[in-house]
Design a protein that fits this description.
532 residues, mainly beta, seven-stranded antiparallel sheet, 5 helices
Length: 532
């Protein structure tokens, strides 16, 4: 019912002095109190067993189905208590210091409890709640042992085997994602973090980063030391004075670079006990190319040819450009079984214009040399126009000459120079005793046919124009001679006519000797016939 409040305090009137007008009880005051009592009685709920102890119900009629807010010590209901409050407003508030001994409900916050249980029970059934606070252990019947609890995509607390924690070790079978600038730390100076631009990762430590593999107790396979040296198969890469050290006790250790995975073709750097260090390519058609400054400079083909300045070497050494052997280096030319070899060697003294190049043969000594003056010496080591042995091709500022020696005791007829055509001799210069040489033109009968006496040369002799003239070059005067253009009309066999008309014609005076001999014979006969 409504709250009854007195309008007049009748007890205070008793304390007033006699004669005080306020001491009189007026009818209007009685009437007002009567009306207040009537109103309170009229709003009383008709409930034979209603009991309200220590609480108040405001602004409603006792017996109404919907009670307004209030504070209660005891609230009992035989039907549902329904709240019309806005979402987010608590319809029932229990003080944090108050324990609810037994609250049996089928629905709380609009979600059914599968198996209703008393709040305060040690094992509540499944429930949807905003906050769950416990002062003891919470045990999940489902999930994975050591699994880390988390909210899944449906916001349900669950766990699995992908991420586990046993109190000491944290393990995962999936990825660990770190935001830019975030660290996976071991200490303040040892951590793993993505780079700020999220395009890579950074591993930082002031000590050593090691890489281990293997079951049971892993074995160290590689490490990066504090100086940035990377070692594979060694715990001290800095001891090899290299930024990358690959060490193995195996007989064959390789570093491979493969760009054709399907066929396994690529290159490798290899070291083994017997062949030292080997740089090579794997099986397949692959040349070994050296490209400093990203430009090919040398190539070793799959056939073993070495090309310098060419990408298609056609010989064991194919050089497109100059070749230089410094100091007293030797250039060897071996035969197929290496039992004999020629070699070029510079034996000249230091300083400009002192080089001497010699060609020698194993077990035979020097055979040829070019001295510092450019003279070519064969069979002799002394430059001379008249060598005591061998041949000299002399070269100096104004005079060039060829010197050919016959050793003491050499007999006449031995050649100084021989001329041939298509393998057959056509002339020579030979020794004539110890003081002269012979200039020989081939005239063997076995090379001739249709041999008869020559015709008279008188008419040809009379047609020869013997001239005197001065040479333009040098200005020398020749008292007797021929002009090639005139002689060619009389004795063409004695004139050299080059194919190029711009080249100079020449005369071989020896070709005129048979003609002169024929004329002398004819003259002698005529004189004899005349009796002279």
């Amino acid at each position: 019912m409504s709250q009854y409040t007195k309008s007049t305090n009748f007890a205070t009137k008793d304390n007033l002095t006699p004669g005080d007008p306020l001491k009189i009880v007026r009818g209007t005051e009685i009437d007002t109190e009567y009306n207040n009592i009537a109103t309170a009685i009229a709003t009383k709920t008709d409930n034979a067993s209603a009991a309200i102890t220590g609480g108040t119900i405001n602004a409603t009629t006792i017996g109404a189905t919907t009670a307004s807010t209030g504070a209660f010590s005891t609230l009992s209901a035989t039907g549902a208590i329904t709240s019309t409050l806005a979402t987010g407003t608590a319809p029932l508030v229990i003080a944090s210091t108050t324990k609810v001994a037994n609250l049996n409900v089928d629905s709380l916050d609009g979600a059914d409890w599968a198996s209703p249980a008393a709040l305060g029970s040690t094992t509540p059934a499944a429930v949807s709640a905003t906050t769950l606070t416990t002062s003891s252990t919470v045990t999940f019947n489902g999930g994975t042992a050591n699994g880390v609890a988390y909210l899944n995509g449906s916001k349900v607390v669950t766990s699995g085997s992908a991420l586990t924690f046993d109190g000491t070790n944290l393990a995962t079978t999936g990825d660990i994602s770190l935001g830019a600038g975030k660290l996976l730390k071991y200490s303040s100076t040892s951590y793993i973090t993505p780079e700020n631009n999220v395009s890579g990762a950074e591993i930082s430590t002031t000590g050593v980063i090691t890489f281990l593999t293997g079951s049971g107790t892993p074995t160290e396979r590689a490490r990066i030391d504090s100086s940035g040296n990377f070692g594979i198969g060694t715990t001290s890469p800095s001891s090899y004075s290299a930024k990358l050290a690959v060490v193995s006790t195996a007989a064959d250790t390789r570093i491979a670079v493969v760009d054709d995975v399907a066929s396994g073709r690529g290159g490798y750097l290899r070291s083994n006990f017997s062949d030292a260090v080997i740089l090579g390519t794997t099986s397949g058609v692959r040349d070994l190319v050296f490209s400093p400054d990203n430009t090919e400079r040398m190539r070793i083909s799959t056939t073993g040819n070495v090309g310098i300045g060419t990408s298609s070497p056609s010989a064991k050494l194919d050089v497109a450009g100059n070749v230089q052997i410094r100091s007293t280096g030797v250039f060897y030319l071996n035969n197929s079984d290496n039992t004999n070899q020629y070699y070029w060697q510079n034996i000249g003294a230091t300083g400009a214009n002192n080089a001497t190049l010699i060609l020698s043969r194993t077990n035979a000594g020097e055979t040829l040399r070019v001295d510092s003056s450019g003279n070519l010496l064969a069979g002799t080591t002394t430059a001379s126009n008249t060598p005591s042995q061998g041949i000299t091709l002399m070269q100096n500022t104004s005079v060039g000459s060829i010197g050919i020696d016959h050793a003491n005791g050499t007999t006449s007829g031995n050649g100084y120079m021989n001329f041939a055509y298509n393998g057959s001799a056509i002339g020579s210069i030979t020794q004539d005793g110890t003081t002269a040489v012979q200039f020989n033109t081939t005239s063997d009968q076995r090379l001739k046919e249709n041999i008869t006496d020559a015709d008279s040369a008188s008419t040809l002799i009379d047609a020869l124009q013997v001239r005197k003239f001065d040479w333009k070059a040098g200005g020398s005067h020749q008292r007797y001679g021929f002009v090639a253009q005139e002689l060619v009309t009389v004795a063409p066999e004695a004139v050299h006519q080059p194919a190029d008309p711009e080249e100079m014609m020449a005369v071989d005076y020896s070709k005129l000797v048979p003609m002169l001999v024929k004329e002398i014979q004819s003259l002698r006969k005529r004189l004899a016939d005349a009796g002279i």
